Amino acid sequence: MIQIKSKTISPAALSAFLCTGNNRELLDVRMPSEYANAHVPGATLIPLNELRIDVYLAQHKPGTPIYVLCQAGARAAKAIEQFERSGCDDCILVEGGTQAWIDAGLPVHRGARNVLPLMRQVQVAVGSLTAIGSILTLAVNPWFAVVPLFLGCGLVFSGITGTCGMALMLAKMPWNHGQNSCSHCCNPE
After folding, report:
1. For the residues 63-74, what does the mean pLDDT come to?
2. Is 0.70 surpassed by the pTM of this model?
3. Residue 61: domain span
4. What CATH code is carried by the domain that includes residue 38?
5. Residues 126 and 161 reside in one and the same domain
6. Is there a contact between 60 and 66 (Cβ–Cβ < 8 Å)?
7. Is 91 a catalytic residue?
């Protein structure tokens, strides 16, 4: 588990603070497809795998809070850990991420695209490949048992490290990028 020394804020408290118009930065570190489906108004998208702390901090005014969120909090915590290693203690973790924001009934911007969230894509892919591998094992050749075995090991690795290779691979697929991913959303609104 990642230990961060930054502060946290609930979605409701952040929503109230955003209404004050005070200086703040709202950083969403999810994938473009997740962001296009639904995001907090005013959030700037920089996927965690594309986040360059030195570049971000070069444009950041020290002392200005950076509210960081992802889908549920894990990727945001990793981003904050990177900021803290670079000496920036201005980050505040949005508790529960975008999902908690939505669950609280707070306003979100929704894109026109209807792409499954990345983790659901992973679940569909792993489930389908496991079922196919199992059927092939029973019907064709026992060596096809390697497919579900490999997928199971991948899930264990993902759970232990917090890094999902299949999610990283699926994130590069064209349906998770593309021209429909609401280009106006990638800047603060």
Report:
1. 90
2. no
3. 7-113
4. 3.40.250.10
5. yes
6. yes
7. no
